[in-house]
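Hey Z.,

So I finally got round to the adenosine-5'-triphosphate thing we talked about over coffee. Here's the setup:
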Amino acid sequence: MINFSKLAGYKKEDVRNLLLILQEFVIVYRDNKVKINYQSRPVVLFLGTLVSTFGLGIIFILRSLIHKYNEIRLNNKQRRPDLIRQSSTILKNGSREIFIPNGKGKNGTSRIIIPKPNLDQYAADKYLYKNFVIDQKLKQQKNILNSKFLNQLIIIWRILIPKFYSKNTSLLLSQCFFLILRTWLSLLVAKLDGQIVKNLIGANGRKFARDLIYWLLIAFPASYTNAAIKYLTNRLSLSFRTNLIRYIHDMYLDQVMAYYKISFNDSQLQILNIDQYITNDVTKFCDSICGLFSSMGKPLIDIVFFAVYLRDNLGTGAIVGIFANYFLTAWLLKFNTPSFGKLSAKKTHLEGQYYNQHLNLITNCEEIGFYKGSVIEKSKLYETFQNLTNHISKEIKVSFNYSILEDYILKYTWSAWGYIFAGLPVFLDDIWPKHNDLDDTSSVDSSNSLESNKPAKVNERQNMRQFIINKRLMLSLADAGSRLMYSIKDVSELTGYTDRVFNLLTNLHLAHSPTFNYGSKLGINDIHGTIQRNYVEGIRYEDIPVIIPTIEGSENEKLIEGLNFQVKQNKNLLILGSNGCGKTSIARIIAGLWPVYSGLLSKPSDEDIFYLPQKTYFTNGNLRDQIIYPHNYDEMIEMGYNDDHLYHILREVKLDYLLNREGNFNVRKDWKDVFSGGEKQRISIARVLFKNPKFVILDESTNAVSTDVEDYLFELLQKKKITFITLSHRPLLMKYHDFILEIKNENGDSSDWKFHDLTSEENLKSIDNEINEISKKLSKVKEWESRKDDVELYLDGKYDDIEESAIELPSDSIPLLN
Ligand SMILES: Nc1ncnc2c1ncn2[C@@H]1O[C@H](COP(=O)(O)OP(=O)(O)OP(=O)(O)O)[C@@H](O)[C@H]1O
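And the result:
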């Protein structure tokens, strides 16, 4: 036999002693073998959690496999990755199908279905938002059920959970289930805690070991429940946000063009930095409401559970005492709570301003660079940042005093109160009424029983156990109460976010209202004009005043008095006038951006008319997207076009070198910085050629291209039979047009206008005369040029004898020579 003791260098006695100890351990274990009751709650809960986790895991794996199978099937059907990436198809049920890159492989995409906008719901909701302010004024009495916040929340709730049988309801119910489960588990843990301490004091190793095992087993469902609550809170918040954002996007980006009109509403409800509202406030609102649900839901459930349980142990008097304390302190706290809602709403607003200032800097970095405007931009940034920091430091100061009071009351006073009530049954053992004995062994393990043969010791241990349980429950109750109190601050913050989100929704509904009056203080009957859509003849203005929509409404100063003109197909119109006289405003009215305050506007369908704004807009995307804007690739394919057609268009506007330079249409760049001024305008004309509308409005769309290219582009449009309405201040463009609408602003007030028919006999004659005049002047210039040397000598004073009349300079032709 190997002598281990020698090998290890230990003495024989040491080894023997060790073996003896081990042997003793085995004997103790055999005699006091820990008996685990497999029907006890900790074991059942542990196994239940294990089985349900396993089951859920299998369901998720199956779901993802089915999902993957569908993806592969779809990808096989539409093999073109480019098409899949950009596709946005309307399905039969009206929902939109889009594919977004999922980062898996080069061409990996995920299919996303965006449900059809529920226009009926939006129409029905309109009255809730529109009438809210009026309703609030009518309901004068102030009580908790009639608070502005609750009413706003109830209205928004319809968007968060539109119908009972929905994903969000199941998420919410699951969360409720886990919240209750957590409270129940806390109760079990409290009892187990008491039992472990009791076993420790009683030196009962067997039971101590058993309860420790139970403790570890119950820890699994308890941790699982905590994680599940966090998970569900985040999922619910994301889901709420998705619902809200879809609602907002549907309202914000539709035919009504709320994204443009909303800025005009400078009434009481005006919102600045709407992007901030949509991107930031909605998120914070959803996080806040979901966080509040768990942060308030759990303490509420806890309070009910623990109060009922403690009432059994301590008696009704104690519970009344505890709650009296809670209510008193809650009132004290509420009384001293600063308006965190308003503070956080203002902070969000200031954060938005600071963010926008930065955004403005990046967007216009080139222009600012040319102007060397970094100093002024820095001071502006600093100013907005300073406003923000001032506000935050105010918020910190306000919170400081509140935190002292809050901590003192919630952490220390309540715990002390808890100790007192937990200690009462121990100290006043004789006089304290005996309630339900806490040795409810069945709650943790039905096999646990009292050791009745040692009454004195048992009583001591029993007291200890009872104290531990009561203390734990009291502290949990205090904790639940304090968390409920802490959430007063969260509620206050939520009121701020709710108000902002509600304001955003109200503004969207206002912009959608047929009586939207662009914030006019005059009332709803301000806009009386009539719009005739789908007018096949062309565009007709009948006695329409051009007015900037402001708070003054129709009483605002008119840019142009009652305007009358008509454009028919293939008869091009030039609207001529100085800067700021209101040319673009005429187009704004046709496009529906500005209202028709009075008169009649007839216009073709949106399909037949296209607008080229003064500043060309470039979308985020590839070269192809710039040409086909506002269509997408999928629509282009549906229209029967392909990249060859786009190349042909680029050739027509003399931009084919762009494709040769960039390589292909899929190149993505920041195009607004890449294209030169003239290229931008030619891309605009390429858009017209792609769209091929009947009418196009060109707002100074060729002023950056050279004269020869300008000639060419107008001829191209004429060749394509696209009728154009050109807005410009250059009379030179007259040659491509049949009519001129001349806007004269001589006295600085509203402009007069005059309509000229360039095709009429009289005008043709006057044009002939003008051409003759110009020809005469030209011949004089030519003569002058032929005698250039003589002129120079004359100007140098060398040929005094030359007759002045012989070198008479045609004064108005000098600019031509220059
Ligand atoms: N949203 C607005 N709020 C206030 N004033 C505005 C608004 N939009 C335009 N204006 C004013 O209306 C007037 C007409 O503007 P408009 O853009 O129609 O001029 P325009 O004739 O096209 O000028 P330009 O030749 O310089 O492009 C200008 O004085 C402009 O400042």
